[in-house]
Amino acid sequence: xxVMKFGGTxxxxxxxxxxxxxxxxxxxxxxxxxxxxxxxSGITNQLxxxxxxxxxxxxxxxxxxxxxxxxxxxxxxxxxxxxxxxxKEVIENIDVYLTRLERLTExxxxxxxxxxxxxxRFCSFGELLSTTVFAAALNEHGVRSExxxxxxxxITDDRYGFARPLVEICRKNTNEIIKPLxxxxxxxxxxxxxxxxxxxxxxxxxxxxxxxxxxLFGSWLHSESIEIWTDVDGVMTTDPRMVPEARSIxxxxxxxxxxxxxxxxxxLHPDTIAPAVEKNIPVYVLNxxxxxxxxxxxxxxxxxxxxxxxxGLVKSIAVKKAQAILNVRSNRMFGRHGFMSELFDVFERFxxxxxxxxxxxxxxxxxVDDAAVNESFIKELxxxxxxxxxxxxxTVSVVGDNLRMSKGVAGRIFSSLCNVNLRMISQGASEIxxxxxxxxxxxxxxxxxxxxxxxxxDRCDAIFEKPAGS
Length: 470
Ligand code: ASP
Ligand code: MG
What we know:
This is Aspartokinase. Residues 328-398 form the ACT domain. Keywords: Amino-acid biosynthesis, ATP-binding, Kinase, Nucleotide-binding, Transferase. Pfam families: AA_kinase, ACT_9. It catalyses: L-aspartate + ATP = 4-phospho-L-aspartate + ADP. By secondary structure, this protein is of the alpha/beta class. The protein folds into 2 domains: 2-231, Carbamate kinase, CATH 3.40.1160; 316-463, 2-Layer Sandwich (VC0802-like). The protein has 15 helices and 17 strands. The strands form 3 sheets. Strands 3-5-2-1-8-10-11-9 form an 8-stranded mixed sheet, with helices on both faces. A 6-stranded antiparallel sheet has the order 13-14-12-15-17-16. The chain has a 3-stranded mixed sheet with strand order 4-6-7. β13 and β14 (363-369) form a beta hairpin. The radius of gyration is 25 Å and the shape is globular. The mean pLDDT is 93. Aspartic acid is lined by residues 7-8, 38-39, 44, 126, 192-193, 207-211.
């Protein structure tokens, strides 16, 4: 069996839901899948806004926003469910949640305080609503399915906003509650992202957490694969908005996927795939709208990896904008130990994470999120030495597992970037990425040049005129 996870855009409209249902019906021919859903796109953000508005004491505005959430889901029901009786039943079901949401809103306005715990409660309604509508629509379209409140299965610790599962309990629950249904051919529809503590308080796994839910269930159920259905053709060679020739990557390793995610590509979060890596369960990133396209397979299985990749050397080019370079210079570094520890202590105290780093005997260059840089942090750094800051830079990283085994890649990277001013260079410690830091204004040209170097297309010849004779 497989786990099929549909993201917000794949359940964000009635048309998208119908398409997702068709994909599930197709999968069901070979066995009932576990279907894990996100909230409809935009709804989690709206719930967070409702919480904030209620917390700030604006009850009327919060209620208006709740009414919009209600209208949105009612419209979906109207479009998807023809049978009068079923429609009535689903409306009653979503009304239970919407009434609770309204009461919660009033409660928060009265106490005038919004805790992490109540925020999770707010956020949980997105998935509870999307799955309720979707499960009914599946049944209406003739796919027999069972809806499960995952809070009876996904039992977590009480780190609200970033909860993690109590694995043994979850595994047992999965086997007792979900598996028997799948075994008799019933599709199970449930919520990603949410869970509950042992005492029954609602928790969430953090934003984007439904991918993690899917991977966890895949690992507890020993599924054949985990399918992440989204609205793009899998993981791309680079952002297609920047380079129209970007293609989808057929197959990549878990470490390539993790590295790309860290380096700014919109791929699965590395935590997400960890449960799949442990059990070596292949993860497919697929396009809901093109179910027959192959998407991207993420795996470490040498058999599956064999001969399927194009480009070979480089898998993808990732970009992270809105970064800043910090240069810290101090003669105190020279021939002494302990400086780095003092430096990192400052980052630790301000909760700022270092992205790229490069050092010499007397200076250290680091990149951080531009938005994280603030006056008191810089003042603190000044106690260690001279500090220079360059804002509005971007990191561009070339990622591929085979980079470490190949000669001449760095040469190709740097010669294709010969017209770009490189502010910093780093060969990732993992040896599977080479990164450069450049001005944000140079990103389009740099990515285009790198893409042409490693994934040549006809357009490249036109843009980058080859010197005669080459
Ligand atoms: N709905 C949640 C979010 O928007 C979880 C998810 O979509 O993965 O973050
Ligand atoms: Mg998501």
